[in-house]
Amino acid sequence: MDIGNKLKELRIQKGLTQEELADRSELSKGFISQLERNLTSPSIATLVDILQCLGTDLKDFFNEETEEQIVFKRDDYFEKLEADRGYTTEWIIPNAQKNIMEPIRLTLTQGGSTYPDNPHEGEEFGYVLSGNIILHLGKRSYPVKKGESFYFTPSTTHFIECRAKNGAVVIWVSSPPSF
Question: I need a surface site. Which of 63, 67, 138, 148 has the fewest CB within 10 A?
Answer without folding.
Answer: 67
